[in-house]
Amino acid sequence: MNLDEIVDCMLLTNQEIQQTQTDHRMKLVDFWEIKSGDRVLEVGCGQGDTTAVLANAVGSNGFVQGIDIAPRSYGAPFTLGDATDHLKKSPLGNRMDFKLATNILQGDITFSDLEFDVAVLSHASWYFSSKEELTRMLILLSKWANRVCYAEWDPQITDVKQSSHLLAVLTQASYEAFKKETQSNCSETQKLDQMPTREIWLVFFMRSSVRGTE
């Protein structure tokens, strides 16, 4: 499928924004060298923006298992349940499955060693409460998949147009940090300082060298 056809599979609020986001994710998947027939585990799948692109890449002989800690009712204006149900009914739907309200670190689900060709954690780092939690997740993923592919936005802006978004994130993080319970994906301002930075988005491979790390 081309860009427009993949976007047509999604539950949309803004066609132009979704095309931009999907184009970015297609570049990620191409960089990660996801190939036809791959079995992919995606953690932090959300509404399935990256899931759809992965499903297109793995083809009819591949499969993408999306997992997210959030419940079906989470999200606006469409919930995760609305968005993932819509994707499942699309032409890509038979290549994917979603397990929502599933906490991997609490043992809600587990997989056999090397059950997947690739594990993906894309733009989901801020949902972890600490660097230690993120490390635990990466160690698990490295056991379940031959390789782990990771992507996150860089908090160091390169264009003045990006400053308003960064300031909004910093403001939200500062506010959420005072809450005992929060559903925010950026509740700790220190996460911004802990993130590695290189480009407007950071992408790197974590290969088998991670496997077995304690």
Automatic annotation (TrEMBL):
It comes from the Bacteria. It holds the Pfam family Methyltransf_31. Transmembrane segments: none annotated. Residues 34-154 form the Methyltransferase domain. InterPro entries: Methyltranfer_dom, SAM-dependent_MTases_sf. This is Protein-L-isoaspartate(D-aspartate) O-methyltransferase (PCMT). It comes from Listeria ivanovii.
